[in-house]
Write a structure and sequence with these properties.
Structural class: mainly beta
Number of strands: 23
Helix content: under 10%
Strand content: over 45%
Number of helices: 5
Largest sheet: 21 strands, mixed
């Protein structure tokens, strides 16, 4: 069976197959491809010669929103679930493709296509206002370049996607997001519950499979990031997400005008945290929140606990000034402190300011 347009003019769209085509009726979603073709307004059946003909007017661009909706209702679509989960307000496809259909054989499709869509969404992920694709497509997957954008996010992906064995993909990615609020449910699940960011960018490798979940290796930046009530600005990082763990290396950032660096690792199965953050010339007042205490020091933060209940052990050395409420006489000198921050509360184990005139120490919980 050959398919052409009704005018007989040559075009780049062709279908190949054999008749009779398999048609199964009865249970929901069991109509075969022949029923799809017969029910789709893009095609009509010609008895002589026996073939499906594309309805005029036909251009080199196939407007396939209606076609895709019909295809999603067929049993053949079950072999390509990504098409079932893909919706669009408008979808245009241009390029040569072939469809192979044979009695008792799997549905086959191949094409080198350029596609563009508006209002494109996959499953419950955020909708793209505009999306374009240029590459090859078959019944088992696709490979090529995908560019998608909205008012608050953009994605430039070069790689491959396989849906023959469950949805999985891998490739290089450039992405920008206005904030954590525009992330879909899949990526949001990677963040701690109370974490957020603004103006984020990422460049590197990104992949996903049902076996490994998300995997990534690249670098990024955040205008600001916050967790546990603490904010870091101008953060630059390297990220590596594997099957068992995820690691983020903080290569630069500031907290209260102090410079930060360090790394954090997360066990993906237990959500256990381990890591350290180093800060130079860190203001002590925002950390200790103790009336009369001011100064600066080098701080080491040892991170533990879990994503849901993190804990931080703090050690600080520097110079501080303390003025008590009853003497009003400042004590200025070397500062040494040890504390633990957890559940929005700071437990000071030791904080000492030493000077030639004497010393001051304190301990206890600060909220």
């Amino acid at each position: 069976m050959q398919v052409g347009n009704e005018t007989g003019e040559a075009d780049r769209i062709a279908l190949q197959g054999h008749v009779p085509l398999e048609v199964t009726a009865g249970a929901e979603r069991t109509a075969g491809f022949a029923a799809l073709m017969d029910g789709c307004p893009l095609f009509r059946w010609n008895s002589t010669p026996p073939c499906f003909a594309l309805r005029p007017p036909l251009t080199s661009t196939l407007r396939c929103r209606v076609f895709a909706r019909h295809f999603a209702s067929t049993k053949e679509a079950l072999t390509a679930p990504i098409l079932k989960d893909l919706v669009a307000d408008q979808l245009l496809v241009n390029g040569p493709f072939s469809i192979a259909m044979r009695q008792g054989k799997p549905f086959g499709f191949q094409g080198n296509l350029q596609a563009s869509g508006r209002g494109v969404r996959f499953r419950k992920e955020p909708k793209a206002d505009l999306a374009t694709f240029d590459g090859s497509v078959s019944q088992e997957g696709l490979s090529g370049k995908l560019v998608a954008s909205s008012a608050s996010a953009s994605v430039d992906f070069l790689g491959s996607l396989d849906w023959a064995h469950g949805v999985r993909f891998g490739g290089t990615l450039k992405a920008h997001a206005a904030s954590h609020r525009v992330l879909g449910p899949s990526l949001s699940a990677l963040l701690p519950k109370d974490a957020g960011f603004s103006k984020g960018a990422y460049e590197g490798w990104l992949g996903y499979s049902p076996d490994t979940g998300w995997v990534a290796r690249g670098n990024g930046s955040l205008e600001s990031a916050a967790t546990q009530g603490q904010a870091i600005r101008a953060a630059k990082f390297d990220a590596e997400i594997g099957r068992r763990s995820a690691r983020v290396v903080l290569k630069g950032g500031s907290w209260n005008d102090s410079t930060l660096s360090g790394q954090v690792m997360v066990d993906r199965s237990t959500k256990a945290l381990i890591g350290n953050i180093l800060g130079s010339h860190v203001p002590l007042k925002p950390i200790a929140n103790v009336a009369g205490l001011d100064g600066y020091g080098d701080v080491t933060a040892l991170i533990g606990g879990t994503l849901d209940h993190p804990g931080v052990d703090l050690r600080a050395k520097g110079t501080a000034t303390y003025v008590s409420s009853y003497s009003q006489k400042p004590v200025h000198g070397a500062f040494d402190g040890v504390a633990r921050f957890q559940d929005q509360a700071l437990q000071i184990e030791r904080a000492i300011v030493r000077s030639d005139a004497g010393s001051f120490s304190l301990k206890g919980e600060v909220k």
